[in-house]
Amino acid sequence: MVLEIPPAGDGSITGTIMDAWQAALADVGPAGADKGKGGKYLILPPDYKGKTPQGYIVLPSMTYQGYALLRSILRSGSDADIAKAVAYARRVKLYPLAQAGKPFNPDAKIQETLNAVARETHAWLDAPSTSRQARTMERRSTNSM
């Protein structure tokens, strides 16, 4: 998988890419491997034997699953800076290496799943922070045992 972090400028992302055991593979952003210049992080599965293309920050993983914890860094709490941070975060990309440089053409089921996730994420990002907090707390209370 490729995690593409845009260059810092109007926004900045700081975070860590980890494997399923929470072992850090790399930090991203100004304090990370790309030093704020942006980068394409190539996360490879265990025992990967293929060639790795040029132009990627290669991250061998010991597990087949993993995740990234990413945080947008705001210049201030102003509406304008929040809007810039949201616009910057929307430029982060995640895709299979086989799709690099190609248009993404998912089938209808995948497209609907991606659209549903995008709608929920964008609604959450666009909501005032107090509304986001209320919805998060509501989800936590309905999902607890």
Order of helices and strands: EEEEEEHEHH
Rg calculated over all Cα atoms: 17 Å
Q: Into which percentage range does the β-strand content fall? A: 15-25%
CA-based shape:
globular
- The residue fraction in helices comes out at 25-40%
Q: Could you list the spans in which at least 5 consecutive residues all have pLDDT below 50?
A: none
List the strand order in the largest sheet. 5-4-1-7
Largest sheet: 4 strands, mixed
- How large is the count of helical segments? 3
Structural class: alpha+beta
Total number of β-strand segments? 7
Distance between the termini: 34 Å
The average pLDDT is 83
Total of domains:
2
Describe the structure.
The protein has three helices and seven strands; from the N terminus they run ββββββαβαα. The chain is α+β, with helices and mostly antiparallel strands. The mean pLDDT is 83. Strand 2 (13-19) and strand 3 form a beta hairpin. The longest helix is centred in the last third of the chain and has 19 residues, at 108-126. It is 31% helix and 25% strand. The chain has helices at 79-89, 108-126, 129-143, and strands spanning 2-5, 13-19, 24-28, 39-44, 57-60, 66-72, 93-95. It folds into two domains: 2-101, no CATH class; 106-145. The chain starts with a strand and ends with a helix.
